[in-house]
From TrEMBL, chains A, B:
Source organism of this protein record: Streptomyces venezuelae (strain ATCC 10712 / CBS 650.69 / DSM 40230 / JCM 4526 / NBRC 13096 / PD 04745)
Domain Peptidase M20 dimerisation, chain residue ranges per copy: 205-358
UniProt xrefs under NCBIfam families: PRK07907.1, PRK08201.1, PRK09104.1
Higher taxonomy: Bacteria, Bacillati, Actinomycetota, Actinomycetes, Kitasatosporales
A single MF term (Gene Ontology): aminoacylase activity
Identification of the protein by name: N-acyl-L-amino acid amidohydrolase
Entries under InterPro entries matching the protein: Cyt/Met_Dipeptidase, Peptidase_M20, Peptidase_M20_dimer
Amino acid sequence: MSETPDSAVHAVRTYIEQHRAAFLGDLAEWLRIPSVSAQPDRAGDVRRSAEWLAAKLTETGFTTVEVWETDGAPAVFAEWPSDDPDAPTVLVYGHHDVQPAAREDGWHTDPFEPTVVDGRMYARGAADDKGQVFFHTLGVRAHLAVTGRTAPAVNLKLIVEGEEESGSPHFRALVEAHAERLAADAVIVSDTGMWSETTPTVCTGMRGVADCEIELYGPDQDIHSGSFGGAVPNPATVAGRIVAALHDEHEHVAIPGFYDGVTELTDAERALVAELPFDEEAWLRTAKSHGTLGEAGFSTLERVWARPTAEVNGIGGGYQGPGGKTIVPASAQLKLSFRLVAGQDPAKIELAVRDWLAGLVPAGIRYEIVFGAPTRPCLTPLGHPALKAVAGAMSRAFDGAKVRYTREGGSGPAADLQDVLEAPVLFLGISVPSDGWHAPNEKIELDLLMKGVETTAHLWGDLPTALLATER
Amino acid sequence: MSETPDSAVHAVRTYIEQHRAAFLGDLAEWLRIPSVSAQPDRAGDVRRSAEWLAAKLTETGFTTVEVWETDGAPAVFAEWPSDDPDAPTVLVYGHHDVQPAAREDGWHTDPFEPTVVDGRMYARGAADDKGQVFFHTLGVRAHLAVTGRTAPAVNLKLIVEGEEESGSPHFRALVEAHAERLAADAVIVSDTGMWSETTPTVCTGMRGVADCEIELYGPDQDIHSGSFGGAVPNPATVAGRIVAALHDEHEHVAIPGFYDGVTELTDAERALVAELPFDEEAWLRTAKSHGTLGEAGFSTLERVWARPTAEVNGIGGGYQGPGGKTIVPASAQLKLSFRLVAGQDPAKIELAVRDWLAGLVPAGIRYEIVFGAPTRPCLTPLGHPALKAVAGAMSRAFDGAKVRYTREGGSGPAADLQDVLEAPVLFLGISVPSDGWHAPNEKIELDLLMKGVETTAHLWGDLPTALLATER
Ligand SMILES: [Zn+2]
Ligand SMILES: [Zn+2]
């Protein structure tokens, strides 16, 4: 990082200061477009959002800007090649669709009329994810301004999808269809957050997920529990026993082979997690939960970030109306999902679950199990030079603050990029937990938004050296 | 039974033969009244059914006949005192309401237009329970005719309720309100069946039932299983663990104290059960089930007749729609019921379940458990003189055939009579499994119906001696 002296930090800030007002005005314009992918009647707005972004990226200087169609909402692709033939290629991921929002959900202002109060911009999508996509437009301009370049030091690509809030149903197909054009030496996902306003962090991984539905069939119809109860197998009882067999008494997942290959946390990683100023009471409030329970031997953060899990998402069977009904139900259903961590292969997990299940279902009960499309886990090794570059650029933006590492317990389309493009995935986000993703009064802290701009302004200059180091 | 020689059997049959056509015509008239208690728009028909029966019982000779109002459908009470001041009092129980039925459910004939084909009368309620109530009208007349009496040898009472097919919601209150008028030395429930056409049997008991609903509350709302899964307790998982904890690996109920006081089957009783020509394949077809599973050490019949059980009637929690949803659910629900046998006290079972449950729910999960009104088990001791009288009368009706003993796995209002009136409950039924209770094309075998008439014609003469023996 020695090639960017303090004067560069100063120059970047000066440039950003000059363009901040126009930048925020543009962002507000984008946020006024209610690009809610989950609402069919907003499909026109999602398209308008894509076209607005495409026009703005062209204006920014991207030399190729295209709206890519999918079987759902359109994505935006943009490319700005470096003028350095040896430059590495970086692909930035984000999304331009937003969660639904309505004033009556508890918003103090119109969710699609951005409002700045006390240095915060309130609007649906301000943090998730329009603000965090948009800081790249000013970031690359600042990078050029302070380095005096006419093209970025990296081949910069952007893919901004339009269906993330609907589960990215067409994203993998899109990435596969355009794999060559999306090819990159590193992917930077711009759709996560930091630990807090005062603790800048870089996310280093997301869990994967595999999910299945299990149907259990007993009698051909609900039968009378007086006449037959106690002598025939009950599929709802079997469902309960399957659930109970998911874990042992230490809350370890008890499916044989489940932990095979798991990349265990190193002592160094555990120390980094333990360094974070974690307030379990506050975390429980966020989780709207009234107690912690998880795998023995791990802390709450380790459990949600770095440990695989088995979760019951849904269970049903028999009579669920008011009062009672004395039946042996004809069927029962289970929806299970398994969060996966680096080293776990969803295909092997599926086989392990199938084997385990076969041993649990008694004679007289027929069952079916169907798996959904899995999402692989992704993990940036702590020693990866690009990760160091991201952390370094962020530290410079945060006045030299120590940048720590977090992970994300959820799963996302980042894994599709990692899998299809075979590129390391890094995460860069400046949103904070109080930003209220998916909640009323979503906002972004404008000072942090500018730190995002600053971070990328430094990063594009730093990355070539860092990635060159990788290749050697 | 020596006081009724073979000539009595002959005399009863002759009398019945003479009155059979008129009797069947009357029954058909009653069956034309669609007294479906579960259908509010049939309330008028249920009342008409009660009034029709009351008129017919008056015509039969009962000296007191009353329609008793409840908070639901009316019941019919009738009394015909003996002219012998030492006569014991017998109360016959039945019901005049029927299950719903519609031609389009698969009936070959109009369910409310009785049709006789091949010695069977097809109609809703033919077996359950109008036919089995109605044989008492001809039975008592035959008893008088062949004994030359002007009043029965027992004080004969009838209580015929109008809501059995709706769960008898007001029956206990009715019995409590009229306990003095219903007081009896023995109750004869005329609402069960026999093993088969060729194996006459007397039912000697019904299981009781206690049921509860359990609500389990975890997070205040469904939360994201990626962000929080693996670190907070999941109420659907807890529901499954509760279900799994209901039984041990031998399918014994594992709730501490559950079996306390259970009246175990004697070797003699087990031998009697084993004597029955049980065809497990056929039984499984009736149960519409594809395998047997139950408490180790007991046969299928023992399991459903004489062993207490714990059954899951319903389970629900989290997402049950199509596809998946990666949540930790906010809540889960369980509906459990426990079949009880003689010696088990529902109040103690409730306490045992509450204690057991308290030990299963982890910190962070709040729960509620609510019990419904229990039904006690009832059991006629095999040595009871009245039971011997019933079996003896039946044997005579069945040409001296050996009468065997069964039980009923279900639970019914008989227990209310046993509890409130503190009288032994006996069961007398001539219906067979093929009669199709609650199903399309319900029918009664007319020859068996006449055996019911014959049985009571003998029984009222035999019971005084038998019950006198009890009192000594
Ligand atoms: Zn997002
Ligand atoms: Zn009935």
